[in-house]
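quick one, 199 residues, struct below
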Amino acid sequence: QQQQQQQQQQQQQQQQQQQQQQRPKGAGGVKVPVPLPVLLRVVAAMALRKAKTNFYNISRREQHVARFCLLKPSFRLGEAIVGTFDFSRATLPCYQVSVSLLCVEQIKERYRPANPNPSSSEQRATRSQVFAEHHEFCLHTRSLHVQLPVPTTAVPQFETDVVQVSWRLQFEFLTAAAESIATPWAGAGATSAGAPAQG
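---
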């Protein structure tokens, strides 16, 4: 009986040791949640090492607003578009950033209905749909991370003789007026830019 009790105690001790080894590091072996911004920074750092990134400098009236880093030149359906804004070298304060993921369908010019007004004809032949949006205040912020999911049920990018379907990222920046940088609250203006994204 004593031998059986000793064997049971040894088995319990071994099980406890295995459980302690399997537990993640943290206070009392409890899981420590990692904030989403930290995870995005890690992902961005890993992507910068492995892949060629795309950088876009955004300015208004020759004043630097931000630098945007897109981790990949193209994305597949079901993936998330991950990007980073860098405001560390901005010469024009930015109050708010808005990013929209658009799917644009456009009929080729030769198949459009006749219209004496070219701009009106182009507007009728173009249709866009917003699939994801991100809005965030960024005043006094050095960096900002954006994540926009591409739906799995959406149509991928393609082109035929009649129609062209493309994906785009549309950016809008609420900035201080260029002539009032010394007193940024005297006025505000908006600027926008676009970068292509592939479905």
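Residues 180-199 have pLDDT under 50 and may be disordered.
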